[in-house]
Amino acid sequence: MLKTEHYLAEGSILKNLLTFSFPLIISNLLQAAFNVTDMVIVSFYKGPAGLSAIGIGGLITYLIINGAAGLSGGLTLLIGKLYGAKKEEEIKKTIGSSAILFFILSIMISMAVIFAGGVWLRALATPVEAMTEARRYVTLSMTGLLFVFAYNGVAAVSKGLGDGKLPLLIIFTAAVLNAGLDFLLIAGCNLGAGFTAISNITAEAVAAAMGIIILIKKQPLFRLKKADFVPDRVLLKELTKLGAPLAILNVSATLSFMLLTYIVNRIGAEGAVYASGAHAIATKYNGIALLPARAVSLAIGAMVAQNLGANKPKRNKKTLFVGLAISLGIGIVISLFSFLFPEAVFHLFGAGGDTADFGKDYMRFMSFDYMIVPFAVSAYGLADGFGKTYATMTINIISSIAIRAPFAYAFGIVLGLGMKGIGLSIITASVSSVILSWLFLLFMKEKPLRIKGS
């Protein structure tokens, strides 16, 4: 029988973190495979122009999707806090209220992005060869935004209840279905690169529906009454307080990479399509490489939220340092591979030649990031668990918008370092995140780093 909850405020901290975060790591890797499948198949069948199209078009859609994921992160934290305090009725009202909110947001946002998609693509200096399919990718992706919200919402509820296995199951289903549809549409039907968006939204719709059915059958807290769908202002205010900063955090990070894309396209000049493809692959790989650290960060946040709900704050300091040790160990292994075999990364995505030449030095610089980021995101997890999501939002905006993008321009174009400069700017931003996040923890009102005991 599938267990759809796990009380994290008691028992071994190491065991709880591993039990909760390992399925999340696998889930996130499958989510990455979900996204990478598009890129590999398009790279193989449609070449650099198709790769550039979904790389740049994907940045716009990921801007929105990451915002939805951030808001869902607030839902995870709120449900975790309520579950730690064993407030079952409030959990049901939270689920119902968030469903209404997510529905309204998905309709409004999808219409706005479809209308402005062409303007965004031109602002990003999208290569002419990639423009048509990039526009198609954005339009088709936004028509299925409702399914993205539903997909993230189901996973958020499960994570808040301490269950990392249901998100793993639904993303596995989505990844397999997405890969099959990609082959059918791109390889079999010879459609354009932009049609991979149909594979994405179909897979997410099926996975979301499956998750909802499982929760209704297995989880009593998900069996809602009509009254639970009446928006609760207090709970929605709390959800917004927790989720909006996380959404802005994710959006600002994506905006930063959009700015990097613009700078990369300028660096590439006549070879912009190859530079754009290299950046798209490096960005995608970077997202995959950081997934374990981010999964552990989410586990830290969920555990801290339940600890606080259960009035057990002494567990939080150890939760932070155990989580950091796990994510740093994984990060060191990924860093070594990325530094020693940068060209292999591009070959894994079905790209080589000029694309790999543009990206290999960039990849070597980025490899150091995988040992730096765990220190920042682990601190984020602790702060988020305390409900200080505004702090992680602020730190991320400073590091990604005020530091990463300007330094990329300075290093890459002004100093003429090219793609090496882009990689160096990413490291600079990550170091600033580490410094700012740990300073925040030291001066938090609750003083979690000064609590003695386990």
Question: What keyword list fits this structure?
Answer:
single chain; globular; 454 residues; mainly alpha
User: Structural class, from secondary structure content?
Assistant: mainly alpha
Give the tally of structural domains: 1
Order of helices and strands: HHHHHHHHHHHHHHH
Shape: globular
Give the rounded overall mean pLDDT.
Answer: 82
Strand-residue fraction? under 5%
Through-space gap between termini: 33 Å
Question: Main β-sheet, in a few words?
Answer: none
Number of helices: 15
Cα Rg:
21 Å
Helix content: over 70%
Number of strands: 0
What is the topology?
Blueprint: H1 13-84, H2 88-123, H3 131-143, H4 145-160, H5 165-188, H6 196-218, H7 233-268, H8 272-289, H9 291-309, H10 315-340, H11 342-348, H12 353-366, H13 369-385, H14 389-414, H15 419-443
Helix pairs in contact: 1-2, 1-3, 1-4, 1-5, 1-7, 1-8, 1-9, 2-3, 2-4, 2-7, 3-6, 4-5, 4-6, 5-6, 7-8, 7-14, 8-12, 9-10, 9-13, 10-12, 10-13, 11-12, 12-15, 13-15, 14-15
